[in-house]
Design a protein that fits this description.
Elements (H helix, E strand, L loop, with lengths): L6 E5 L3 H14 L7 E5 L48 H5 L9 H12 L8 E2 L2 E9 L4 E8 L5 E6 L1 E4 L6 E2 L13 E4 L13 E5 L3 H12 L4 E5 L13 E4 L2 E5 L2 E4 L4 E3 L2 E4 L3 E2 L22 E2 L3 E2 L5 E3 L9 H15 L8 H15 L5 H17 L8 H17 L34
Parallel strand pairs: 1-2, 1-7, 2-3, 7-20, 9-16, 10-11, 10-16, 11-12
Antiparallel strand pairs: 4-5, 5-6, 8-17, 13-14, 14-15, 18-19
Bound molecules: flavin-adenine dinucleotide (FAD) and NADP nicotinamide-adenine-dinucleotide phosphate (NAP).
The site of flavin-adenine dinucleotide (FAD) has 31 residues, from helix 1 and strand 4.
Length: 443
């Protein structure tokens, strides 16, 4: 089971895939012999979701556009919660900068860390993985890949496969009675690029999570006439400014009138479905596929990463994320050490017990704050097993909990706050333009 690897595949060169390659390069720098690595990336550049695209639907190769980001997106937690301990913001920016970075600045930070590491040598860009199978006879994975520029398919053999394809790219699109006759525009948050087009319009946003919250805020900022957020389970519950209102779930639509569960109705011009994403792995057969919703601990993964029925198949970053970048590192270092046989993978029974232990803890989570504690413990367990650069996880937990509080206090102003890095002690500076007034694109 813990076979010595001579060749590994990484699928995806987003933040997770980059962490994985870097983990190997750091081991190599200490004199360790690392396996041959091939990273397949279907986009023409690295950065994953952080590569903004004006396109929606399909790209020039007929592939679904990966990015779900929009023009004026800023990160939605303080940057100090995501800081790499081995590549601090001080190192990247050489001076204190605001806590809430623009999409462009955050992307530059993620990429700044790997630029010196010569990772591009591993990556085949414009190469989409079409099929991953396990060949019992050869005891290896067979990976079919399409070179998008030439259309040619090739088969590669690997000892380990690491899936780092993200899970916020394939929209979950529920149906609502009468929506097919709606006279306005309907789109999913995956295809949302800019709120300027909604100025003067009445917007209906369906969903009760981060996309619903932020697209409502963007639309408010860019002059939507009215914004209704329709939630399924519970309201987001912030102290919304006049013009944003929450109502229970949408029941049906007649022409351009939306009817909600509480009996209320509204005339709307645009519907934005902020109804989340699917974990979508069309290139993996059922026997190897992860089936999960966006949660803290997917059931089929030992240590939240190693596929239970075939632990040489590793899924990175499949959890709902509070920590993001440092979580990806913790997983990538652990996966590397499994592959380098520094960490022993126990037999099936022991793995099952371990998964059950984490699932039992997950079932006790009743709030986002408890979710933060859960993810911190999970990360710490992984980090304790490797030489992943340690950092003040408890300090970041405190920041994340304060962040939830900030949003409750002032949903329009939370992105103007400043924070102290638990890693460097550097205090961030206030943004030169308040978030609500920042309407031009960052350079
Ligand atoms: C709207 C939005 C805003 C967000 N904002 C924040 C934020 O403020 N802060 C934060 O920390 N996180 C944020 N996130 C979370 C985001 O998921 C992570 O920051 C991060 O991008 C996840 O990295 P990843 O490598 O797992 O996946 P991705 O970034 O999705 O990268 C996956 C890569 O796999 C490639 N790929 C997919 N399928 C194939 C295939 N078959 N063959 C080859 N390559 C393939 C893709 O092209 C892509 O490059 C946001 C997410 C969304 C949707
Ligand atoms: N940087 C930023 O500003 C920013 C902006 C947007 C998103 N993001 C990130 O993007 C990621 C994804 O966020 P997300 O909000 O798109 O997805 P999400 O957190 O998974 O939430 C999905 C939402 O869709 C709702 N939903 C699902 N099916 C529904 C249905 N049939 N009817 C009504 N509602 C339904 C869910 O409702 P229930 O609650 O009832 O399950 C939930 O509220 C997160 O990591 C987030 O941090 C960041």
């Amino acid at each position: 089971m813990d076979r010595k690897a001579s060749r590994i595949a990484i699928i995806g060169a987003g933040p997770c895939g980059l962490s994985q390659m870097l983990a190997f390069v750091k081991a190599e720098a200490t004199g360790v012999q690392i396996p041959e690595i091939v990273c397949f990336e279907k986009q023409e550049d690295w950065g994953g979701l952080w590569n903004f695209s004006w396109q929606t639907g399909i790209d020039k190769f007929g592939e679904s556009v990966h990015s779900s980001m929009y023009r004026h997106l800023w990160i939605n937690g303080p940057k100090e919660c995501y800081e790499f301990p081995d590549y601090t913001f001080d190192k990247h920016f050489s001076k204190p900068v605001p806590s809430y970075l623009t999409r462009e600045a955050f992307r530059e930070y993620i990429l700044g860390r790997v630029k010196e590491s010569n990772l591009r040598r591993f990556i085949l860009f414009n190469n989409a993985v079409r099929l991953v199978e396990f060949d019992q006879e050869k005891d290896q994975f067979k990976v079919r890949v399409e070179d998008l520029a030439s259309g040619k398919h090739r088969i590669y053999l690997f000892d380990y496969v690491i899936v780092a394809t993200g899970h916020f790219s394939t929209p979950h699109v529920p149906d609502f009675e009468g929506i097919e006759r709606f006279t306005g525009r309907v789109l999913h948050s995956h295809d949302f690029r800019d709120a300027e087009q909604f100025a003067g319009l009445n917007l209906l946003i369906v969903g009760g999570s981060y996309s619903a919250e932020d697209i409502a805020l963007q639309s408010y900022k860019f002059g939507a006439k009215s914004i209704i957020i329709s939630y399924r389970t519970k309201p987001i519950g912030f102290n919304w400014p006049k013009g944003i209102e929450e109502v229970p779930i949408l029941m049906h639509i007649e022409d351009n009138i939306a009817h909600f569960k509480d009996g209320s109705q509204r005339k709307v011009d645009v519907i934005v479905l902020c109804t989340g994403y699917q974990h979508h792995f069309p290139f993996i057969p059922d026997t190897l596929r992860l089936f999960t919703s966006n949660r803290q601990y997917p059931s089929q993964l030992y240590k939240g990463m190693l596929f239970q029925d075939q632990p040489r198949l590793i899924y990175l970053g499949m959890q709902n994320q509070f920590f993001s970048l440092t979580l990806f590192d913790a997983q990538a270092w652990y996966a590397r050490d499994v592959i380098l046989r520094r960490i022993r993978i126990p037999e099936l029974e022991e793995r099952t017990i371990d998964i059950a232990k984490w699932k039992a803890r997950e079932s006790l989570i009743t709030s986002p704050l408890e979710g933060v504690d859960f993810q911190a413990s999970y990360m710490e367990e992984l980090m304790d097993s490797t030489d992943c650069t340690p950092f003040n996880v408890k300090g970041v937990v405190a920041l994340l909990k304060g962040w939830e509080h900030d949003k409750k206090e002032d949903i329009l102003g939370y992105r103007d706050k400043t924070f102290t890095s638990p890693i460097t002690g550097t205090r961030s500076v206030a943004p030169s333009v308040l978030w609500i007034n920042a309407k031009s694109q960052a350079k």
